[in-house]
Amino acid sequence: MLEAAQVADDPIARYAAVRQQTEMLCRPLAVDDYGVQPMDDASPPKWHLAHTTWFFETFLLKPFRERYRPFAEGFETLFNSYYNGVGQPFPRPRRGTLSRPTVEEVYAYRAHVDAAMRPLLARGDDEIRARVELGLHHEQQHQELIVTDLKVTLGGNPLRPAYRDDLDRTACESRPATFVEFPEGFVEIGAIGAGFCFDNETPRHRVWLRPFAVADRLVTNVEYLAFMEDGGYRTPALWLSDGWDAVRRDAWEAPLYWYRDGGAWSEYRLSGPAPVDPHAPVTHVSFYEADAYARWAGARLPLEAEWESVAARYGEEVPAGNFADGGRLHPRTPVGSGMAQLFGDAWEWTSSAYVAYPGYRPLPGTLGEYNGKFMANQVVLRGGSCATPPGHVRATYRNFFHGPDRWQFTGIRLARDAG
């Protein structure tokens, strides 16, 4: 069996490892789980399995393999997500209506494409290798979505069934948060070097930061509960206008997946129902909730440049943290002292709008639709979560979601002005 470093250096082994991991995530499922779409923003597992396969077929096999025979012509429309340059995608809200192709046919589609990819993976062509690497990171993004979308499905079921019953549920006491101060000055943010990055992480550029301080851990459930008990969801002065509209429209009174159980708060986890762990990081909160909590706490959310400058100082080339391979699929309390939880556990909301960096250029052709066209009305998150595949994120990685979104493992790190 190849070691991790060997897999990373072997394109064929890396391709196989990523593709197999996607299917491993689906092993705990019953066939009835594969087609359920609980909301417009979440897709059925069957669609994720097929769409990630569609990516390799569309952007690698069709342009680079002569006489390649597609598995089924209709799949080009069914499993396109938003690439209008390829054709008209099947409507996202209707993905759960597709009883056919069957789960068995989707797995056959994956096997067909994987077999056809092997000759391409052996080539030394730079463009092919770049597209394969993009496709593998794209599939890792969908691995995280499989987990979080399944949580919406199972957590919305009145039975609250577990995705897996072997997940770690241990709890431990957290430590008081400390703010670490940083001086004013120029910092450089953005990707640099020969390693993989998405186009939205470039180009590297300088940003001037005023003196600031950042909490050395994420906000915990018990701290967020204090905000709730102090009327946080009933105090309009704490909320941005769109956020207050969401509170009233959607009757928010707690993070997603929290519910009352005999007067106490419980939550749905992927391991099943459990009492809310007071010391674990609060998660499944929207940008609006994170911003309101920060305002209530006399703080603010960090700028993405602040977050990245801190992560670059305390992080590692291959960030360590509570990722999807940790056997937990839930945030955990930090271990030890010092700056913690920068990677893994929960995606951290920033106060920065998702916009292009100065000098940004999207990828050429249809692949340019991957990131650039979403640079409006969304907010940047950083750091990865307990559902993120290990090795997928880095200090420069920019995730983005709309302000009301909270079905991802999203949490809060506080910041404030200093000096």
Radius of gyration: 21 Å
Q: Name the structural class.
A: alpha+beta
Distance between the termini: 54 Å
Strand content: 5-15%
- Shape, per Cα inertia axes: globular
Roughly what is the average pLDDT, rounded to an integer? Answer: 94
Individual helix count: 10
Strand order of the largest sheet: 10-9-8-11
Tell me about the biggest sheet? 4 strands, mixed
Helix content: 25-40%
Structure described in brief:
The chain is α+β, with helices and mostly antiparallel strands and 419 residues long.
Structure write-up:
By secondary structure, this protein is of the alpha+beta class. It has helices at residues 4-9, 11-26, 45-64, 75-78, 103-121, 126-155, 221-229, 241-250, 287-296, 304-314; strands at 179-182, 185-189, 205-209, 212-215, 258-261, 264-269, 272-275, 347-353, 379-382, 399-401, 410-411, 415-417. The N and C termini lie far apart (54 Å).
